[in-house]
Amino acid sequence: MPALPAPLKCACLVDRRDDTLLLVRVRDNPHWYLPGGKIEPGETPAAALQRELLEELGIRLETDSIRYLYTVIGPAYGQPGEVELVCFAGNWPGEPRACAEISEIAWLPLAQTDKFAPTVRQLCAEHLQQA
């Protein structure tokens, strides 16, 4: 049996407000994802997050506000192997807007995990569901 590829490493923003989570949807994809994206070779996860948020949402994450939360490894959607989400919180001025490949931005209720990508559902179950 061939070995699975190494997990795809992504830096993601986890922004929860009450019982909602900031999520994005990429064009032609039914699932919702955390804002962020792939960490490029030689790039730190925090730098990747800042770059991706500027490219995809037009927001500048304040460097001093970035805080690491946790890492979640789960199934990659639409491809073999796994994805590793390096998750951060942080602050930014202004409002996000859909740029690049992002078609929609929404604050979705945590109860609607059936609309979330598989690893985002896993993240919610492990870290965001209230006891």
Describe this structure in words.
This protein is of the alpha+beta class and 131 residues long. It has a single domain (8-128), classed as Nucleoside Triphosphate Pyrophosphohydrolase (Alpha-Beta Complex), CATH 3.90.79. It has two helices and seven strands, in the order E-E-E-E-H-E-E-E-H. It has a four-stranded mixed sheet, with helices on both faces. Strand 2 (16-17) and strand 3 (20-26) form a beta hairpin. The protein is globular and about 50 Å long. It starts with 7 loop residues before the first strand and ends with a helix.
Give the mean pLDDT.
93
Structure summary, number of beta strands: 7
Provide the CATH architecture: Alpha-Beta Complex
Shape, per Cα inertia axes: globular
**Topology order in helix (H) and strand (E) letters:** EEEEHEEEH
**Roughly how much helix do the residues carry, as a percent range?**
10-25%
In whole angstroms, how far apart are the ends?
40 Å
Query: What structural category characterises the helix and strand content?
Result: alpha+beta
Rounded Rg: 14 Å
What's the CATH class label? Alpha Beta
> What is the CATH superfamily classification?
Nucleoside Triphosphate Pyrophosphohydrolase
As residue ranges, the low-confidence spans are: none
Number of H- or I-type helical stretches: 2
Q: What is CATH's topology name? A: Nucleoside Triphosphate Pyrophosphohydrolase
Strand order of the largest sheet: 4-1-6-5
Number of structural units classed as domains: 1
Main beta sheet: 4 strands, mixed
